[in-house]
Amino acid sequence: MSNLRGRDIISALQFEREDVERLIDAAESLRKEIEEKGILDYARNKILATVFLEPSTRTRLSFQFAMVKLGGQVIDFGLAEAASIAKGESFEDSMRMVDGYDPDIIVLRQKVPGNAAKAAEICKAPVINAGDGWNEHPTQALLDVYTIWRELRRIDGIRIGIMGDLKYGRTPSSLSYILSKFKDIKIYYIAPEQLQIRPEVLEKIRGVDYEKVDRPEKVMEELDVLYVTRLQKERFEDPSEYERLKGSYNINRELLVKFKHIPIIMHPLPRVFELSTDVDDLPQAKYFEQAKNGMYIRAALIKEILGV
Ligand code: NCD
Question: For the chain, where do the domains classified as CATH 3.40.50.1370 start and end?
């Protein structure tokens, strides 16, 4: 894809490396402009609708802040519990209705894998998938590679450990997809067997060198980046399995300082118990910057989709 104007963003596989590079450049210039001027006016007279039918803090807020900083307007759908969905309105009808008010972009999070693509078929406005169940979260992948680039000034050749809930998580899949567009990437999937990466992800990243490992200690010295994820409690079919696995991993300061080399530590957040707060003041801890980077790269994406 060479220009994202008017496009839906459903999967991280849609991004070619040129798209990522161009969006990173745009995010860097918008960062400077926003730091200087506060609110810009690229998106004047444009409306972004946020429809979040699953919980969110960062993704929803960073899209909303990004649009406001571009000078546009935001309308939020509100909580699913407070909307007509709670009265039994179908997803399709809700989406048709939102689209009927003519927003310029719809940002959608909901729990059914594949329903972002369905919404894109229903709506004339471009739809950005902000998470469709365990499937994908393409704009998180963008901010993840943006963060890697800001820290290491390259994406090619990185060695990354993606750890935690690779089965039910949507960030490990989208991150793998976007990394597959770069050269000489090595991915270590760090998880117990029950939470290992879904086979369909491995099929789609053919050509990428990967390895499955069960413990972070085994590969820590090899890594440029350790990407930690939360166990997706809400997606476990069997709550006792969650209880059994939840102690599996904890990245803490004591563990990290044992190594001569500590990789950059990333996490899409929210964290629960898998990443201790005592890691926060290590210079390698980058997850709060990562969240902030999300606003700039999402601003770059919105600007390009709007064609402004
Ligand atoms: C992630 C998500 O929603 O998939 N959060 C986010 O968007 N930053 C990760 C998670 O919920 O564990």
Answer: 12-136+294-306, 138-290
